[in-house]
């Protein structure tokens, strides 16, 4: 059997016990053995400023870029802030896409799970993030889509998804994402 494909998981919420972090961990647990997924933290990234991106960029930027660069794919798990993605997530995208011509995102297959305690599952953030994928040259998995609403009721004390339909959706999502990553890695 071939080695599992490496996937970076970017969680848009910085809260230690956020619903999005719980979903990211649950998705990693439900991923097939063909994926090796891990969360890459974004909370300590200084705001992107091109003036700092010279010969000695901030160490946190270098570490982040070095963590994303070797990955075969990226899964974004995001809440919705004001019908868009959180600032920390946008900042991580900017840090990874610079300096110009050296984007760590380019060509990496990706997908997004959006999670909300409300009923519409962070639909706006999901689609706003997809707009960035086009510019970043990241082939985005189109189906299945994952808008997870009413997420406050989905997890047990250990962080496992308790609702069977959602667990089945995320299991299917992760299997399809594994195939998406493999398809693009083989190209």
Mind explaining what this structure looks like?
With 187 residues, this protein is an alpha/beta fold. The protein has one domain: Flavodoxin domain (Rossmann fold, 3-Layer(aba) Sandwich). It contains five helices and five strands, in the order βαβαβαβαβα. It has a five-stranded parallel sheet with strand order 2-1-3-4-5, sandwiched between helices. The longest helix is centred in the last third of the chain and has 23 residues, at 164-186. The radius of gyration is 16 Å and the shape is globular. The two termini are 19 Å apart. The mean pLDDT is 95.
List the helices and strands and how they pair.
Blueprint: E1 5-11, H1 19-30, E2 35-39, H2 59-68, E3 73-78, H3 87-97, E4 110-115, H4 123-136, E5 146-148, H5 164-186
Parallel strand pairs: 1-2, 1-3, 3-4, 4-5
Q: In a few lines, what is going on in this structure?
A:
This protein has 187 residues and is of the alpha/beta class.
Please state roughly what percent of the residues sit in beta strands, choosing from under 5%, 5-15%, 15-25%, 25-35%, 35-45% or over 45%.
5-15%
Q: For the residues shown, what is the average pLDDT?
A: 95
Integer-rounded radius of gyration: 16 Å
Number of helices: 5
| CATH superfamily grouping | Flavodoxin domain
CATH architecture: 3-Layer(aba) Sandwich
Say what oligomer this is: single chain
Biggest sheet: strand arrangement: 2-1-3-4-5
| Morphology call | globular
Notable features of this structure?
alpha/beta; 187 residues; 37% helix; 5 helices; Rossmann fold
């Amino acid at each position: 059997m071939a080695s599992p494909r490496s996937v970076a998981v970017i969680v848009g919420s910085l809260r230690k016990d956020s619903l999005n972090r719980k979903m990211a961990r649950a998705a990693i647990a439900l991923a097939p053995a063909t994926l090796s997924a891990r969360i890459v933290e974004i909370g300590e990234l200084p705001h992107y400023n091109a003036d700092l991106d010279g010969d000695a960029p901030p160490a946190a930027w270098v570490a982040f870029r070095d963590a994303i660069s070797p990955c075969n794919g990226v899964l974004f798990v995001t809440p919705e802030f004001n019908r868009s993605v959180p600032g920390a997530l946008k900042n991580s995208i900017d840090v990874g896409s610079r300096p110009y011509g050296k984007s760590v995102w380019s060509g990496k297959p990706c997908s997004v799970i959006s999670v909300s305690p409300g009923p519409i599952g962070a639909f706006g953030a999901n689609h706003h993030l997809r707009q960035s994928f086009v510019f970043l040259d990241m082939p985005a998995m189109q189906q299945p889509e994952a808008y997870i609403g009413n997420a406050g009721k989905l997890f047990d004390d250990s962080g496992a998804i308790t609702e069977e339909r959602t667990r089945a959706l995320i299991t299917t999502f992760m299997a399809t994402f594994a195939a998406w990553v493999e398809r693009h890695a083989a190209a």
